[in-house]
């Protein structure tokens, strides 16, 4: 390796370090993007990302689909959410999904996007967990709110599905079936997805 080639290679490594990502073949990892994050007056704590399996870290992957860029595809078996990008790529996020009896699938669209959303537990959930009745009128957004830092509201031809793509303070639920049907992401990931996804975007849950 001559001096010029060495300098170019060193510069590439430095650039990747500064942007918090690493590249492995066709995969670009963002494992360094889970530090303490200040957002809208809140300070999200750092995620101990080393405790989360690497496959669930945010990353750009090769992904062949006939769906248009901007489409969101959720694979509940794999516990992955794909945001379709041009040129056969997708941003992939690890997710938590509905536990047994709360699974769902279908096609919807993002009708609303909310930052630090209010959470209102459904009547059926209050019936199962009476202690949630105090939030019947809505739990204000915040660090302990179950919807986390962002929520994308899913509607279909019949209106509100009741399901959301949202953040969660329970980072250790990623990769598991633990929710009441909604698709949950690490807060740092839902902030990233929120910045990419547009109102009206197609969402396919497999």
UniProtKB/TrEMBL annotation:
Provide one Gene Ontology cellular component: extracellular region
Q: Provide this UniProt record's keywords sorted from A to Z.
A: Cell shape, Cell wall biogenesis/degradation, Glycosyltransferase, Hydrolase, Peptidoglycan synthesis, Signal, Transferase
InterPro entries, per the entry: LD-transpeptidase, LD_TPept_cat_dom, Transpep_catalytic_dom
One GO biological process from the UniProt record?
cell wall organization
- The signal peptide here is 1-22
Gene3D superfamilies reported for this sequence: L,D-transpeptidase catalytic domain-like
Q: Where is the active site?
A: 166, 182
Pathway it acts in?
Cell wall biogenesis; peptidoglycan biosynthesis
Highest taxon of the lineage: Bacteria
Report the GO molecular function annotations: glycosyltransferase activity; peptidoglycan L,D-transpeptidase activity
Would the keyword tRNA processing turn up in this protein's UniProt record?
Answer: no
Q: Which PROSITE patterns match?
A: LD_TPASE (PS52029), PROKAR_LIPOPROTEIN (PS51257)
Give the matching CDD domains. YkuD_like (cd16913)
Has the keyword Hydrolase been applied to this entry? yes
Which SUPFAM superfamilies does this one have? L,D-transpeptidase catalytic domain-like
The residue ranges of the L,D-TPase catalytic domain are 70-206
Q: What family does this chain come from, according to its entry?
A: Belongs to the YkuD family.
Q: What is this protein's name? A: L,D-transpeptidase
* Originating species: Aquibium carbonis
């Amino acid at each position: 390796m001559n001096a010029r080639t060495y300098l170019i290679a060193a510069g590439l490594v430095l650039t990747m370090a500064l942007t918090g990502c690493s590249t492995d073949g066709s995969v670009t990892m963002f494992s360094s993007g889970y530090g303490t994050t200040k957002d809208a007056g809140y300070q999200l704590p750092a995620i101990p990302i080393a405790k989360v399996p690497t496959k669930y870290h945010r990353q750009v992957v090769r992904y062949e689909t006939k769906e248009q860029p901007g489409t969101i595809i959720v694979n509940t078996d794999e516990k992955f959410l794909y945001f379709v990008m041009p040129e056969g790529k997708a941003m992939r996020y690890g997710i938590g999904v509905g536990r047994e009896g709360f699974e769902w699938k279908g096609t919807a669209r993002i009708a609303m996007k909310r930052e630090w959303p209010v959470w209102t537990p459904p009547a059926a959930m209050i019936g199962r967990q009476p202690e949630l009745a105090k939030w019947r009128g809505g739990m204000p957004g915040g660090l302990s709110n179950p919807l986390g830092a962002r929520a994308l509201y899913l509607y279909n031809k019949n209106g509100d599905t009741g399901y959301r793509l949202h953040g969660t303070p329970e980072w250790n639920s990623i990769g598991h079936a633990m929710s009441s049907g909604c698709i949950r992401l690490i807060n740092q990931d839902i902030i990233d997805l929120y910045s990419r996804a547009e109102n009206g975007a197609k969402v396919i849950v497999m």
